[in-house]
Specification:
The structure holds 2 protein chains of 2 kinds.
Chain A (H helix, E strand, L loop, with lengths): L2 H11 L7 E5 L3 H13 L3 E5 L2 H10 L4 E5 L7 H10 L6 E5 L4 H9 L4 E4 L4 H12 L10 E4 L2 E4 L4 E4 L2 E3 L3 H12 L5 E2 H7 L11 H13 L8 E4 L3 E4 L4
Parallel strand pairs in A: 1-2, 1-3, 3-4, 4-5
Antiparallel strand pairs in A: 6-7, 7-8, 8-9, 10-12, 11-12
Chain B lengths: L1 H9 L2 H68 L5 E5 L5 E4 L6 H5 L6 E8 L5 E12 L5 E7 L1 H51 L15 H51 L3 H33 L7 E4 H19 L2 E6 L4 E4 L1 H22 L4 E9 L2 E8 L9 H4 L18 H11 L3 E6 L4 E8 L8
Parallel strand pairs in B: 7-9
Antiparallel strand pairs in B: 1-2, 1-5, 3-4, 4-5, 6-8, 9-10, 10-12, 11-12
Helix pairs in contact in B: 2-4, 5-6, 6-10, 7-8, 8-10
Classes of the chains: A alpha/beta, B alpha+beta.
Chain lengths: 244, 470
């Protein structure tokens, strides 16, 4: 059993796993079938469309939780497909895959109605993490003012954090980091995602700065408590969850 | 060649302009000639008219004083003077009484009393030759049904008008001729310069990247054109060289790890026995691939920044805030590495720039500073300082690490250059070249200095004009 699946089993056992219906619109057959297989192993149900037109028809006909759309597709290009879905009031979250990774390409992609953008080549763990975070949007957490995992509580309005009733003082950036982790509790988030969503940086710092921030945060919320909540997922990133 | 050369001259803008100007001047000159000629004639004829009138008045006076006989005598006397006017006294029966005119057409005599008019006449000289002239004559009735005619020759004034007209026409002709010559000369010269520009461009396009357009040093419009074209050629050459360097470097720095990756896979395939061995080899392969991807992305970013085509999403923002964000990002890392990282900035400094790229450049500098300070110094420290001076905003990052030897500083900003001391460290050696490219994109530069000990890197960009809203 792979380390990824070990982790997956843990998640499943704790009831965090949400099975998602995912549509992969990708014209490269090998990539597509690899994605379908790997997403299936991760516990999701994935369908495949080989070109833009078929992808559009399937997305309109079925209710998917997430679409994974390649930017360059035969018959209908990825961006116009997304724009058309949005025009038809189809609000399904979309992850764009593209060989173009520059900031302006990303902006174009997001402006066309995409929700997240992943440049090729990517690690599958990165794609899976992003798909799962996107899929969770269907269960909106935006409206909640208090996030809680086990005995950890974060109040988004008063910007206070408590663990087992004890207040924890966090720097503003640490607060945002924890807020993001708690919003996506149970879902693995990657370092790149954290850099993008918490720091709004879309480049690759040469040194892994995120790890140090994480260990600081861990020292503040986990130190002195019996059950650690912030876990490192080898080869992927981090997850905040109660392992029970 | 000569013929095609001339037809090329005819097709120049210079020729068209010259032709238009010549036409305009010719029309103007024609107008001037006719205007002057008419006015001259009028002035001269008015003078003559007045003289004729005065003479007629005098004659009338003589007639009053001495009657027809006296008048006849006076007329005879005057007629014989050299350069005399034309005179004719006619009796009641229409016969000539006195004067130097033999016959007069009847319609002229019939016009007596009216204004003077121009009539042609024939001059009979001693040799009997006949020459035609024009004269301004006036006929006046005297008492006793006598009439007197006085006239003056106007050939002289007509001659003058002719002379004026001829000289003006000559002038215009000369002007046209000189204009054509000047045009020929100027066009040839201009064509030569243009040809030289075209020739140089052709050579450049054909691959002679070192060739430049000739700048004569006169500072005329062609020099200005040549200078700006040369600037363009310099840029193209730099881009081409950059491209060549990229491919050379890709060959070197991407092929080496690719080879390593491939041979490892090969070896494990040949020798590997246990699953842990395969597993280890595969994860090493993935790590290597990640590093390759990272290098490749950095290269692409630099190439795009250098080409200036990052669709440069420029916006107005506070450079000090960007520095604070980067400081916050690196502060835990520095602390872990035992480096005292400090941020010095005094208030907001606005710049118009690509925020993402400036952040990335600054992050690269800080990353380097922390890395080198942690290795070289007894009490490692790194300082980020934001200051503005003389319309420029400078982001300084200094450390007290090993620094870069003066001789190596320029080379350090080139792609893939890893100075000897840093060869073993991670990072593809693209950090400083990216910073340098970002600085250039914003019209600034990256200056590497000595921090005694350590490196002082200064990235400067122009400050946004005050009150310049987005």
């Amino acid at each position: 059993m792979s380390p990824l699946l070990n982790d997956l089993e843990l998640t499943r056992r704790n009831g965090y796993l949400v099975v998602m219906r995912i549509l992969v619109i990708e014209d490269d057959k090998e990539t597509a079938s690899y994605l379908i297989k790997a997403l299936g192993e991760a516990g999701h149900v994935a369908d495949q469309a080989n070109d833009g037109q078929a992808g559009y028809d399937m997305a309109m006909a079925e209710d998917y939780d997430v679409l994974v759309v390649d930017r360059m597709l035969p018959k209908r290009d990825g961006l116009s497909l997304i724009a058309e879905l949005r025009a038809a009031e189809k609000q399904v979250p979309v992850l764009i895959l593209s060989a173009l990774g520059q900031v302006d390409d990303r902006v174009t992609g997001l402006r066309a109605g995409g929700d997240d953008y992943l440049a090729k080549p990517y690690a599958f763990s990165e794609l899976l993490a992003r798909v799962e975070v996107l899929g969770r949007r269907s269960t909106p957490k935006e409206a909640e003012t208090v996030y809680s995992v086990a005995d950890l509580e974060l109040d988004r309005l008063s910007r206070k954090v408590r663990r087992a009733g004890t207040p924890i003082a966090l720097q503003p950036r640490e607060f945002r980091l924890l807020e993001y982790m708690m919003k996506n509790a149970g879902t693995v988030v990657t370092r790149t995602m954290l850099l993008e969503k918490v720091w709004d940086y879309h480049f690759d710092p040469q040194t892994n700065v995120i790890d140090v921030h994480m260990s600081r945060l861990r020292a503040k919320i986990d130190k002195g408590f019996e059950r650690p909540l912030l876990h490192t997922v080898r080869g992927s990133g981090y997850v905040l969850r109660d392992d029970g | 060649m000569a013929k095609s050369g001339f037809s090329r001259l005819l097709r120049t803008t210079g020729f068209r302009l010259t032709a238009i100007f010549l036409a305009v001047f010719a029309i103007f000159a024609a107008f001037l000639i006719s205007y002057i000629a008419r006015n001259t004639t009028e002035i001269l004829q008015n003078d003559i008219r007045r003289a004729v009138d005065a003479e007629l008045a005098a004659m009338a006076l003589q007639y009053e004083r001495g009657g027809p006989t006296w008048l006849a005598r006076v007329v005879e006397l005057r007629s014989r003077q050299p350069g005399a006017s034309l005179y004719l006294v006619i009796g009641p029966d229409g016969s000539k009484i006195a004067g130097n005119v033999e016959t007069v057409p009847d319609e002229v005599l019939a016009s007596s009393g009216t204004d003077a008019e121009i009539v042609p006449y024939v001059w009979l000289d001693e040799e009997g030759s006949r020459r035609r002239y024009s004269a301004l004559v006036r006929v006046v009735d005297l008492p006793d049904r006598m009439r007197i005619l006085v006239g003056r020759d106007i050939s002289e004034s007509e001659q003058l008008v002719r002379v004026v007209r001829r000289s003006l026409i000559l002038t215009v002709a000369l002007m046209v001729a000189l204009g054509l010559v000047a045009w020929l000369f100027v066009s040839r010269r201009v064509l030569k310069r243009i040809d030289s520009i075209a020739e140089s461009s052709r050579r450049f396009a054909a691959g002679d990247l070192a060739g430049r357009l000739e700048v004569t040093g006169t500072g005329d419009e062609f020099d200005r054109l040549a200078e700006s074209l040369n600037t363009m050629l310099n840029r193209i050459e730099r881009l081409m060289l950059g491209l060549k360097q990229v491919s050379d470097n890709i060959a070197h720095d991407l092929k080496t790890p690719l080879t390593r990756l491939r041979s490892r896979a090969e070896r494990v395939l040949a020798e590997g026995k246990s699953e842990p061995e395969y597993r280890g080899a595969l994860s090493a392969t993935i790590d290597e691939a990640d590093q390759l991807i990272r290098t490749f992305n950095a290269l692409l970013t630099i190439a795009r920044v250098e080409a200036g085509s990052s669709d440069a999403a420029f916006s107005l923002f506070d450079a000090a805030a960007v520095a604070r964000d980067v400081y916050e990002l690196y502060e835990p890392l520095a602390e872990e590495a035992g480096v005292a990282l400090r941020l010095d900035s005094d208030g907001p400094v606005m710049v118009r720039a690509n925020r993402e790229l400036i952040s990335q450049a600054l992050a690269n500098l800080v990353d380097n500073a922390v890395k080198y300070a942690s290795e070289g110094a007894a009490r490692p420290q790194a300082v980020i300082r934001v200051c503005r001076e003389g319309g420029r905003v400078t982001l300084n990052v200094s450390d007290n690490g090993v620094g870069i030897a003066e001789a190596d500083r320029t080379r350090a900003t080139e792609r893939f250059v890893r100075l000897e001391e840093s060869r073993s460290k991670p990072g593809a050696g693209l950090g400083l070249s990216l910073v340098s490219a970002v600085a250039k994109l914003h019209g600034g530069e990256l200056i590497l200095g000595d921090n005694r000990p350590g490196l002082a890197a200064a990235l400067n960009v122009p400050e946004a004009a005050a009150g310049h809203a987005v």
